[in-house]
Amino acid sequence: MTAGAARSGTFAALVPLQERPARDPITSTLHPERDPDPPAAPGGRRTVRDRERRRGTGSGRASRIAFWVLLVVLAAGTVALRAWHQSSAYELFMDEIQYADVGNSFAAGVGPQLFDEPFFLHPPLLFALFGLFIGEPVPHMTVQFVLGLRPIELMFAAANVLLVVGVARRVVGPWAALLAGLVYALDPFVVRFDSRLMLEAPMMFGILVGILALLVAVDQTSRRARWAWLAVGGLAWGLAITTKSTAALITAFPLLIMIVTSWGLRRKEAIGVLGLQASVYLGYLVWVVAGGNVAPWFDQTIAGTLRAIGIIKQTGFNSGHAPSFVDRLVVQGVWFFPSYLLIGVAVTYASYLLLIGWRSLRVTREDRGAHGQRTRGAHALRGDGDDLGLLTCWLAGVLGAIVYTFGLGEVEEQTFYLLAVPSTVVVAMLVTQMASWRGVARTVLTVVVTLVLTGSSIIWFTLRTERDDTYLQLVEFMYANIDVQNEVAVGEHTAQFVLPGYGIHELTSVDDARATFSRYAIVSTELTELGLAPASPELVDELARRYTLVFTAHGRTAGDLRLYDLNQPLDGTPPVAPGPPR
To answer: Where does the source fall among the domains of life (predicted)?
Structure first.
């Protein structure tokens, strides 16, 4: 009896059990153990890749060449999609300024510092990399400096699309894997983060390298090769955590599932990968101790951990002053509906796989020896099923982590990047199964996939051809027209970091401006409406009624970014007196 035939009521329920590999795409990809072809060698593994190598036909070679050519084109296209108008298509994000400043401190040789203070809220690996791309450290952050570092993200985008295809290719055919890469390349939510100087794409690089290494490991017949690839996976996941500690959510969770259930990997293997992953982070802690930075590391890391697990809710949608998650979802739906649709479909399908597949992911009595121990060479799943078991545990960990974060932790928009990228792999599995469907179900899913790709393409073109760079326009105007000796009151959080030379003060009322002798005031209509700025909507309205608007720039992120001259009142009130020379 084949392994596939033995799994009644499990993953076998996905498709009929007829041996029809040529006509049943799900059988010939997700379930190669049902392939009637003999294994390559006695006791050998029957995988998609083994069968393709055995065939070796001219058409097979042509298909492989076409696959690699299209993969190169896809990687180049992914970079081009993000590089075109990269500086103007997405507004400057305050986190970008902070990350650029920490990278600048590495370039200056002083280690992780944010505005001359120790910075350990995030591990330093990526900031050290940023520092390598900074030829000459700067004394102050500017918009142009931060935007100049954004192209660093392009190399991670190129690598990640290759990794997405590689991960998908371990369990599905080449064309479904390429489709997963295409979805990644176009997804508006993913593109937004890959185009900015953010931590998500580099963190996901380590996560994808790790899961791909583990998938390669479970295909190895040699014990030494298997453990070597497991070590690569553990090291990659450790590096992901030292890029952004949030990576632990979707790396440690899956390993814990494997340890408890023995799915995908043997328990001792999962423990080994988890231990290696932890040892990488431990090496970072040793570096912290050696540098005498235990106190700032402890304070900032503990605070970040308490926010992540939900004990402290200062930021994110679960905090008391944050805008409603549903409202934000509706507002951004016009720009990200393909991403929402993709995530929704992928989560539904992944949950479906978990529900129907849990029995086949158990270790059965047939897999154990006489004393209840697993026999040498027997895994939680046989053949290519190890790949499915590993991916299932990974997806279960991703879903579990997101559900916890959404319900109790510090859920932010970037949290869903951890779900959006794995969703592209799930889509490849779904499309593969879809090929064996008939009738309405296949038509509906075809429409959904087409809608996701078409909508993503239209949104990409719209975003890239419209400017969303109000801060760049503001600072260019100010340095060209306003003396840097002036005091400026800012009613939002970003401008204070990119206006070196000006006297900067927080603006919550006109009285604040008077007290600080501020000649000018800066406010953002959109950030104020969302509650993400110190200025209130009433103050924005008051400035519009009472003072002269000297500059405004409009973008979809900041709304109207306005600059008012408080020495030119419109209602006859006394002007704000300029302060003493600085």
So the answer is: Bacteria
Angstrom distance (rounded) from CA 374 to CA 371? 9
The pair of structure tokens assigned to 538 is: 């009433």
Pick 428 or 33 by higher pLDDT. 428
Mean pLDDT on 76-85 = 96
Confidence of residue 324 (pLDDT cuts 50, 70, 90): low
**Rounded Cα–Cα distance for residues 31 and 252 (Å):** 27
Alpha helices by DSSP H, listed for 108-222, are 125-132, 143-149, 152-169, 174-186, 188-194, 200-217
| 89: its two tokens | 């298509």
Residue 479: φ, ψ to 5°: -70, -20
**Coil vs helix vs strand at 135:** coil
Whether 181 has a pLDDT exceeding 50, the answer reads yes
Asked if 208 and 239 touch (Cβ cutoff 8 Å), the reply is no
Q: How far apart are CA 121 and CA 314, in angstroms?
A: 14
- Collect contacts of 62-65 with beta carbons under 8 A, ≥24 apart: 63/174, 64/174
510-523 pLDDT per residue, tens: 998 989 999 999 99
Q: Residues 465, 85: contact at Cβ < 8 Å?
A: yes
Q: Say whether 333 sits in a helix, a strand or coil.
A: helix
Residue-wise pLDDT for 93-105, tens only, equals 999 999 999 999 9
Mapped onto helix, strand or coil, the DSSP state of residue 26 is helix
Q: Which residues are paired to 554 by β-bridges?
A: 560
Q: Evaluate whether 125 touches 111 at the Cβ level (below 8 Å).
A: no
DSSP 8-state code for residue 374: B
Residue 292 gets the label, from left (phi > 0), alpha (psi -120 to 50) or beta, of left
Amino acid (one-letter) located at 278 = A
Q: How far apart are CA 273 and CA 251, in angstroms?
A: 10
Alpha-carbon torsion angle 539, 541, 547, 549, nearest 10 = 110
Strand partners of residue 561: 524, 553
- Amino acid 216 reads V
Please report, for residues 100, 194, 343, 462, the alpha-carbon distance to residue 197 in angstroms, rounded to integers and kept in the order given: 8, 8, 24, 21
* CA separation for the pair 240, 418 (Å, rounded): 12
**Do 160 and 190 meet the contact criterion of CB atoms below 8 Å apart?**
no
Cβ(179)–Cβ(512) under 8 Å? Answer: no
Q: Do residues 521 and 564 make contact, with C-beta atoms less than 8 angstroms apart?
A: yes
Of 235, 288, 289, 255, residue with least CA distance to 124: 288
pLDDT in tens, 301-311: 876 666 665 55
**pLDDT reading at 367 higher than 90:** no
Q: Is the pLDDT of residue 371 over 80?
A: no
Quick check: 406 and 329 in contact, CB under 8 A? no
Token code pair at residue 389: 């078991």
Cβ neighbours around 148 below 10 Å, total: 15
Residue type, 146: V
Q: Which residue has the tokens 């290719």?
A: 169
pTM of the model: 0.83
Q: Which residues partner with 564 through β-bridges? A: 521, 549
